[in-house]
Amino acid sequence: MKAPLVKIHRLGFGIKGLDEMLSGGLIEGTVSAIIGAYGTGKTNFAQYFIWEGLKQGQNALYITLEERTSRILNYMENKGWDVSAFLDTSFTIVNLDPSDFNLAINSVKNELPTLIKKTGAHRVVIDPISLFEDLFHDDATRRREMMRFLESIRDLNCTSLLISEADKTNSFISKYNLIEYLSDTVILLKYARGSDSTDVHLAIEVVKMRMSQHSREVKPFEIHQDSVIVYTEATVF
Question: Which ranges of the sequence are coiled-coil (predicted)?
């Protein structure tokens, strides 16, 4: 007798085309990464992930190492979202200053897991994880500490989304070519140029997704003030 299939619980972005590419969304309890160059919409996707959770009654935690809390709120409210209704109840934003090495390391490694437990966060965003990676001065230490950190996050029964800068010379990999190996799911955002090199489009690809089938096609997408549209029926040049 075959063992019954275990139902996989997923957390969607609320972006139809992307959720289709992910077979419904990110797998609950996993660590995922969005990698992209500047201007490709990484933070946009992260905020949709947070907002979709809030609408479903899930607690959300947004860790920003780059933007002020007020700017994060402004970005979300400009999309027409009433995020103020969730502040201090189910939505928590924490700004960490990565300029002080010891403080930033201790805050992320030691205080973040405690904060996730305290807030009961179902969805966690760290934007950008690249600044945390910058704190380590050699590849061996960076890999070891990142592995330990992500394993501690996996143990907390939350679904995490890490925002990562693309490498300056190769937009298909992250800055340190590390987070894609440590994450369960990797979403790549990139620019695509037409044959005449004058038209520039945005494209999305699910490069990797453990424990699940997913689309392996590259699809164009557009970012509007109040929506993100992934064109799953279209093709990229």
Answer: none
